[in-house]
Amino acid sequence: MPTLLQLIRPSGQRSRKIHKSSVPLLAGCPQKKAICLKVRIVKPKKPNSAQRKTARVKLSNDTYLTGYIPGQGHNLQKFSQVLVQGGRANDLPGVRYTFMRGKYDFALETFPRRKARSKYGLAKLAPEDL
Fold first, then answer.
1. Checking phi first, is residue 75 left (phi over 0); if not, alpha (psi -120 to 50) or beta?
2. Which residues contact 109 (CB under 8 A, 6 or more apart)?
3. Label partner for 61 (CA 20 to 30 A): which of 8, 53, 79, 124?
């Protein structure tokens, strides 16, 4: 039930909620191509303790961002091409993007995964490998 103030507003309707993108640098695209400028290791926020791999990249639309390198091991170096998608690293402040494995110069993961394989670009394991 609307309140009296809502009814007497000039438009007569409630205002719509404005959606703010969680990945603004992708400019409405699902993925964007980028070139690595610097690959580095970052320590996560408390209480976690690790060495997370990140890279500073330049997008195809000439904007710069920091992205997370998922999985175990990587082959990224300066001037490697990667595909960037949305998806933040929860314990790394300011890292709101993730790189897609198996595209351009970012190789597939070699670790034999059984679950969440598509995140790391791995084919389904043969029955004898299980």
1. alpha
2. 71, 72, 73, 101, 120, 121, 122
3. 53
d(CA 54, CA 37): 11
pLDDT tens for residues 61-98? 999 999 999 999 999 999 999 999 999 999 999 999 99
E strand segments, the chain: 31-42, 52-59, 64-68, 81-86, 97-99
Structure tokens at 23: 């990945």
pTM of the entire predicted model: 0.83
CATH code of 24-122, in short, is: 2.40.50.140
- pLDDT tens across 23-72, in order? 999 999 999 999 999 999 999 999 999 999 999 999 999 999 999 999 99
The encoded tokens of residue 94 equal: 């300011």
